[in-house]
């Protein structure tokens, strides 16, 4: 029992550092660049993407013995798209402001390689339990990156945090930070720093 | 042959399951999403006409105080003295649309028909650059338009402070958005003003 728990814990935490989708595998970069200019957007995107990863991994794992090899990608895409549309409709109905701000990027979760990657490399060959843990771990790793990057970009670019003023009026907003070039700068620094702290084990 | 049938069957089943579940979710969320969009418009309209309302139920104030009047030139939104339709019009609002820097830009202008001055200006839809052009949503910028004459040309001053009676100061660093807004107001409000005139005469 203890061994099973430990294995589960390892699956869950693997996505945070060792297999972190953003700074280790460099996947899901498009959405990371796009929505990390505000913390609220990052949180919504993190929760949405994690939900899609976990539910898609679970579904693929449950169906893994019935999906013919030749059309597996097509089946994954349909499954992922279904969950993404659910997230999109949910945000539109209950968080219209956030939905308006991140707009098309919710729909683009479909194209996030992290999700397809987990379905193909893990869920298609593992039982539902481990697949959920794996998906949750990778989702947390993605969320960790988004939250950290927006914690740098939002205060520097808007002087705010979650929409509340945190830097005084002496601070001149550094507009570049909330525009695409700022995203590239911070993401580059983020990958560099995190890879230096946690070097890849050969 | 058998394998091909299997592939077709699996794809078909997965797609049917996906379509059915999405249809069900859409059925539930559609009315909520539609209400959100209508509410957003009604709130902007009430604000442009400076009508106080309960933020939980803006529909109530809207239904009592605003009359929608379709004209050949477009829809006018009217308020009447004591909310009686046969009493004189005390406020007129309409929506103006144009192309912004990145996407559509639409706004609602509220007027005082007595002297054709602007009572309020609300940005309804914009996709301008965050931190620059998107600042047209800020109250301090929008409030500058209050009291300006809609029939004369409104000038958004890019250099230096606004000096003329119908001048407002542009947003620093957002020349294109500021000038676009000026163009939309001056060029697309004409038909609505004509419609207002024929309303007064008729």
- Protein structure class of chain A: mainly alpha
Structural class of chain B: alpha+beta
Main β-sheet, spatial strand arrangement of chain B: 1-2-3-4-5
**Could you name the ranges of chain A where pLDDT drops below 50 across 5 or more consecutive residues?**
none
Percentage beta strand of chain A = under 5%
Oligomer: heterodimer
What's the mean pLDDT score of chain B?
A: 89
Helix fraction of chain A, binned, reads 55-70%
- What is the total tally of β strands of chain B? 7
Question: How large a portion of the residues of chain B is in β-strands, by DSSP E?
Answer: 15-25%
Number of strands of chain A: 2
Tell me what you see in this structure:
- The complex is a heterodimer of chains A (202) and B (202).
- Chain A is mostly helical and 202 residues long.
- Chain A has one domain.
- In chain A, 68% of the residues lie in helices and 2% in strands.
- In chain A, helix 4 packs across helix 7.
- Chain A starts with a helix and ends in a 5-residue tail after the last helix.
- In chain A, 41% of the residues are buried.
- The mean pLDDT of chain A is 91.
- In chain B, the strands form 2 sheets. In chain B, strands 1-2-3-4-5 form a 5-stranded antiparallel β-sheet, sandwiched between helices.
- Chain B is an alpha+beta fold.
- Chain B has a domain of 135 residues.
- In chain B, helix 1 packs across helix 2.
- Helices cover 42% and strands 23% of the residues of chain B.
- The mean pLDDT of chain B is 89.
- Chain B starts with a helix and ends with a helix.
- At the A-B interface, helix 4 of A face helix 1 of B.
